[in-house]
Amino acid sequence: MELYAIIFSLLLCFMTYESSNAAGCAEVPQLSNADVSPGLLKSNYSSGDKLEYNCKHGYFPLRKFVYICDGKKWIKLNKTECTIKRCELPTDIPNGQYSIVNGNSFVFGTTIKYTCNKGFQMQSRFVDRTCRLDGWDNRLPACEEVTCVPDNIENNIKVEGLPDYGDLIRFGHRLKFSCDDEKLLILRGAKEIMCQSNGKWSSPFPNCEEVTCPKNATEDNIIVQRIPDQEGSIKYGHMLKFSCLDEGLILKGKRTITCQANGEWSDPYPKCEEVTCQEEELNNTQILVGHPGITPPYKSGQILVFRCTDVNMKMSGQRLIECQSNGKWDNPYPQCEGNVQCRRPPSMSHENADTKEMTRNKYNSGEKVEYVCFNKYVMEGDSFLTCVQGKWRGHFTCLKPCTVTVDEMDKRNIQLKRGGRGNLFAPHGDYFTFVCQWFHYQKGNISFRQMCRNGEMPLPECE
Q: In angstroms, rounded to a whole number, what is the distance separating the alpha carbons of residues 422 and 406?
């Protein structure tokens, strides 16, 4: 300080000596990252005037910078510049890491944020730290291993996968559930759950309930009998027996259905419908007249009269038939026979098939035409159509193949167990096995082994 005073006195003497010829100092100097003391600012500066500067907040050094006016220019007494405060390299934490969220280079004002690795969760209130004048603020956060707490488990449920007493249930651990008596009890909820990265279970704990079947609504014209005959819930093994209220009605469906172990009925509820006789196929015949008419539905007591479509044909069977109260005709539809030719066989492109050979314009009764399915389609049924008295008879179906794209598999986080990565194109009846992609786990109950069924194949899903 004594040296500073001596230098200041010499400069002051020198400036006083030169003051007679001085015109004053120019504008106030501008320093990077520093501000001049407001109390020393004025409109004119002469020899001996001084200015004091302080580094801005977050910059060093903390002492002042001084400028002296020598009558012509400003002279800086300190050579030091204002430099930004730097913090030491941030400390890593076990089972976690930090990232910069504001600023850079770990200088004053820079903010970092800590996150935990998968399978661990943050236990600290503050996860951010900011570089201040005295270093990083806040304490280092801590990551603790994710664990899940099991819910209360009822006595009638079995759990597979519970750890030994006192052991923690960690992230990724799975529990499987089943009922003690799977014939009398049914599992309500997920069969398998997993401890997730947030410390919560993927689904609520299930429970086992007594197997019961729902009481579905019935129509007014149907009678329902319970076996055994008792009030309350319909339990596993119980049956329902149905009958129609009026004689003019016929039961459509199973007369008796049973409550199954899965809580569903063995068959749908039947219905009672008005008795009608089915419309049958006309073989070179037509309905000449009917009482009360010739348009279906044909009710009990209705009469139909037939004739051949060609006068040269001979009718076999009864010319007149009647619909009976049991919903059946008293005689089958008659048929007319004769050598009536068929026209060119129909195009079956809508069934994904085509004729095996070139076709003709006409075919005699009894001749056949063979069809083949398009590539990758599978034939079901007789592949032939037969000319029968001017009409083609026969039926087949070309079952569709299945197509599964890579994008569809990626959306569900699955892949083929064997065969590599690529689109899947498979005919009906083929089986395929899928697996979860790396670091993914099964979601839902759809099996990983699936069969293509006429163009449809449910896909499993992983999360």
A: 6
Mean pLDDT of 163-168: 79
Q: Which amino acid is at 64?
A: K
Instruction: Please say if the pLDDT value at position 385 is more than 70.
Output: yes
Structural domains present in the chain: 2-84 (2.10.70.10), 96-145 (2.10.70.10), 147-210 (2.10.70.10), 214-274 (2.10.70.10), 276-337 (2.10.70.10), 342-399 (2.10.70.10), 402-462 (2.10.70.10)
pTM over 0.85: no
DSSP state of 277: E
Could you tell me the two tokens for 432? Answer: 């395929």
Q: DSSP state, 259?
A: B
| Torsion angle (degrees, nearest 10) of CA 111, 117, 121, 127 | -10
CB atoms < 10 A from the CB of 463, how many? 13
Q: Give yes or no for a contact between 123 and 139, defined as CB atoms under 8 angstroms apart.
A: no
Residues found in the chain? 463
Q: Report CA 110 to chain centroid distance, whole Å.
A: 40
